[in-house]
Amino acid sequence: MAVVRNKAKEVIQIENRTKLKEMEMSVVEKRKRLFSKVDAIENREVVGRWIDERPLLGDKITVYKQAETYYLETWYNDGCHSLDEMISERTDDGVKLEDKGGNIFGEYFMLTASNDLMFCNSSLCYYTAVKHDVEAA
Description:
The protein has one helix at 2-40, and strands at residues 45-52, 59-66, 69-75, 81-91, 94-99, 108-111, 117-120, 125-128, 130-131. A hairpin with a 4-residue loop joins strand 7 (117-120) and strand 8 (125-128). It is of the alpha+beta class. Helix content is 28%, strand content 39%.
């Protein structure tokens, strides 16, 4: 029985190592893509900065614009970072920003004429991020 348990532990260890290797590769690839995006948008205009002050969040959000393309950058509390190209559409409420990669929940951002950043879904806008002073950031 000791040998069977030992082999089971080895199998678990192998599975964990394989999964870790997959995760490391995806992180490396994501970082490569992220840095190539940063290089591509050096001449960008800061549209605004906000903080998501909902409980347990505190994410720092920056919207950039280059030519007619919007980018949304997020620094999460855990140190993770994302930079996403957005699809923009002018509406009566402002500029609707949707992740170019898609969102399975149908969520999007609304950038209003008064430079508020609202979090929305197909039914309503449910949160407005707190503006963050660009000079202090």
